[in-house]
Here is the input.
Amino acid sequence: MFTIKEIMACVPHRYPFLFIDRVLDYLPNKSVTTLKNITINEAQFQGHFPGRPIFPGVYIIEAIAQSACFLLVKSAGEVNREMVYYLGRVMKMSFTKPVLPGDRLVSTITVERTMNEMALVSAVSKVGESQVAKGDLMFGATPVSDQG
Here is the structure.
C-alpha cells in the first residue's frame, strides 16, 4: 500500500529503530494496520534473553507508537516537517503472549479522539490470530522550532 520511503517520510525513525516494515491498511483520520517482521538477527535478541529470545514489550509499544505517528502525519495530508508527534502517555497496556523471532507482529491503531495538537489512540497487536498486546496511547505534536 505504501513504500518504505513513504513510511519514512512520515516516521522520523531509521534503522535500527524503525519498527514498521509495511502498511497493510489505512483509513485517513481513523485507523492504520502495520506489519513488523521479527527476525533473529535483530540486536536486542543478543541480550533479551540469551537462550530464549523474546521481542521486548517496550519495542512492541514503540512499533505501535510509530504506526500511530504514521497515521496522524499521513492523515494531516502534506507532511508537515515543522511538527513532530511525541508519545506522551501509555495507558492500560497489557501483554498476553511473548513475541518471538519468526513472528509477524500486526498492529492496528484506531484514533479515539483528537484535540488541538493531541491525539488519543487505541491499539491491538497480534501474531496470527492471537492478541499479544493491547492499550491506549496519547500523543502530542510539537513544532520542531520548540525542540531547542
Observations:
- Residues 4-147 form a domain with the Thiol Ester Dehydrase; Chain A fold (CATH 3.10.129.10).
- DSSP finds two helices and six strands in the chain.
